[in-house]
Amino acid sequence: MVRPDPAEPSADGTGMSADPRVVCAALVDEVGPDAVVVDADVLDAYRRDRATAVEPGHPLALVRARATGEVQATVRVAARYGVPVVPRGLGTGLSGGSTAVDGCIVLSTERMRTLVVDPAALVATVGPGVVNAELKEAARAHGLWYPPDPSSFEICSIGGNLATNAGGLCCVKYGVTTDYVLGLEVVLADGRAVRLGGRTIKDVAGYDLKRLFVGSEGTLGVITEATLRLRPAPPPASTVVATFPTLVRAGEAVTGIVSTVRPAMLELMDRAALAAVELVKPMGLDLDTAALLLARSDAGRDEADRIGAACEAAGATYVAVTDDPDEGELLLGARRMAIPCVERLGTVLIEDVGVPVPRIPELLAAVEGVATRHDTAIPVIGHAGDGNFHPLVTFDAADPGATARAAAAFDEIMDLALSLGGTVTGEHGVGVLKAAHLRAQLGDDVWELTRRVKQAFDPDGILNPGKWV
Q: Does domain 238-419 have CATH number 1.10.443.10?
């Protein structure tokens, strides 16, 4: 089990040594009794996210802020007493980014639910507690679309999406969260609220600080509002499904597809992931195949047929193209269910590695080898079109031997991704699970620069400590 390091006490003896009763009394006075929770059972529900292999600490209080002013008051109390602040959205993160540390204040933004769509400007003003699906629905009511599309879009918050720079199924063609951020309101470590960016599509005045906060996982500030770009709704999509006798053949199909077209979606599931979904929700998935590719095209049937032809050229055993939206949604539902279904099989260390598209076949073949060497089940799913894969290292946490093998497999896959010119995270964030691997990717010089940025924004180190900086 991985556990975030606790915050260091400050030089004047505050921090972890601060009297929790004094801190809680100050929170009640300055934030309000309705927003502050100290009940142990409630606190327990806010200690962790969905990174089940991460052991959380014990917070001294929870603040469920309803407005920017309450976030400011919370941070000011924390700064005064040197107490860590761990921001969180709806707790759907997969890397331990919102895992509590001992003696911290958990700052939840789930109640900050502003949602205003300006259809003429093609923007939405959104509070961090708004669910991704709610924003999509509000945009749809005006004939518009918010493209960032995590598999957990029905339960994840915009604040969490911003904190991790979430991607999802559509990002191969339409980009990730940061591509849709025009402006942010952020509360800094000293309690000041600042506005970054604005509502214009083009803006090159000064440093683009808003992009620095997107993906910073609450280590530089707390996002309290976002101005997000919307797009006109996409045209109807065709869906392509193909099965392959080996993972390498599926990887070769991906490289062939993206070298000629830009699908709206291109997803992969291996045999183990398919079996996990079929076990929970039987839908007739082919469990004899090594891998399934699921693609979508919103550029017309001709492009969909070209995707199918590329699959056949790579040795697919079955290819089908449909314009039926219900069939397409059924298959897409299977892909979205993959991680929750695999989680039913045991504890899961969820990798989030990315490699250059031409290296996909090597990655998939190597992950199979890692699973064999460590005698560990590693179902694989991923956003194949942009090289972002999720090997799901699955094990019995009650078995010390299995736990050790899983940890070794996890580390080996991280190293493998870097050796292929890739990254330790494409969209889930570094959090706790990948903190030990970040420096290897960045190198010493960039690591030091990263630390200096953190020091500039959070000199006392109170914002989400124990994570990646």
A: no
The correct answer on CATH 3.30.465.10 for the domain covering 115-232 is yes
Place of tokens 């709806």: 90
- Alpha carbon distances (Å) from 343 to 137, 352, 412: 28, 15, 21
- 374 close to 407: Cβ distance less than 8 angstroms: no
Helix ranges (DSSP H) in 214-285: 247-258, 271-280
Element (H, E) at 296: strand 291-297
B/e letters for 383-412, b = 16+ CB within 10 Å, e = fewer, are bbbbbbbbbbbbbeeeeeebbebbbebbeb
Domain boundaries, the chain: 115-232, 238-419
How sure is the predictor about 331, in pLDDT bands with cuts at 50, 70 and 90?
confident
Going 432 to 394 to 49 to 147, the CA torsion angle's sign is: positive
* Residue from 182, 171, 172 nearest 148 by CA: 171
CA distance from start to end of the chain = 20
**Residues 284, 241: contact at Cβ < 8 Å?**
no
Which two structure tokens, joined as six digits, stand for 344? Answer: 């039913």
pLDDT at 3: 61
Three-point CA angle 290, 361, 383, nearest 5°? 75
Q: Which of 353, 410, 352, 342 is nearest to 376 (CA)?
A: 410
Token look-up 């890397």 returns 95
Q: How far is CA 454 from the centre of its chain?
A: 21
- 350-385, pLDDT tens digit by residue? 999 999 999 999 999 999 999 999 999 999 999 999
